[in-house]
TrEMBL record:
It comes from Sesamum radiatum (Black benniseed). This is RNase H type-1 domain-containing protein. One of its GO terms (molecular function) is RNA-DNA hybrid ribonuclease activity. SUPFAM superfamilies: Ribonuclease H-like. Coiled coil: none annotated. Residues 39-168 form the RNase H type-1 domain.
Length: 219
């Protein structure tokens, strides 16, 4: 044992009785899932939607601590209220995140009504809004960890600008912005389906695929 101790100590390994080894192995296995979870990146999702008599548009930004940023300008086809537009933008943002394998997400919205309805269970009477709220809850349930917070409009300025781009698709010059067109004809269950139901706009040459670089490292 003395000889083995000397040789192993060169590698910072200390021999121990079998019982201690079993316990150490059990502790290692128990700690391993927590180590993996810590490696997975949490993404920040910023969403905004707006509606007027002439147009309905939305903006989505996904970013993380590594500096990755995805920007989307969305044009909604159909007539919506302003609150409905906020929900539609959120649903699109969640689908983009889900499609790209993001499982941990913190959502930022400047809509107090949306945050209160989703987080505090405020009663929704309109059938359309009930459907949208249910769709949001179903999609949120697919994430491992999620959080929804209200932020001042001043902190949502980039998404607000993107939302304004939705109705000016032919004038978009930023190659980092993906342009989407979404139908709003129906929206019931979104889990496992296409959900957002968008198509990429054909009016701009600057349409790009998702620029997601997941920051998962090899173990």
């Amino acid at each position: 044992m003395v000889k083995w101790s000397y040789e192993l100590n060169e590698f910072d390994i200390i021999p121990s009785p079998k019982g201690h080894k079993r316990q150490a192995l059990a502790n290692f296995i128990a700690d391993w899932p927590q180590y993996e979870a810590k490696k997975e990146t949490t993404w920040d999702l910023y969403v905004d939607g707006s509606a007027t008599e002439k147009q309905v548009e939305g903006g989505v930004v996904l970013t993380n601590s590594e500096g990755d940023k995805l920007k989307f300008a969305i044009r909604f086809e159909g007539l919506l209220s302003n609150n409905e537009a906020e929900y539609e933008a959120l649903l699109c943002g969640l689908k983009i995140a889900q499609d790209n394998g993001i499982r941990r997400i913190k959502i930022h919205s400047d809509s107090q009504l949306l945050v209160e309805e989703v987080m505090r269970g405020y009663e929704v009477k309109d059938d359309r809004m009930k459907s949208l709220l249910q769709g949001v809850k179903e999609r949120l349930s697919t994430f491992l960890v999620w959080e929804l917070v209200q932020i001042p409009r001043s902190m949502n300025s980039l998404v607000d600008v993107l939302a304004g781009m939705g109705s000016r698709m032919e004038n978009i010059s930023d190659p980092q912005v993906t342009l989407l067109v979404k139908s709003t004809k129906s929206f019931r269950s979104v889990t496992g389906g296409s959900g957002c139901g968008w198509t990429r706009s054909k009016t701009s040459s600057n349409i790009i695929s998702y620029l997601l670089r997941l920051t998962r490292r090899e173990g």
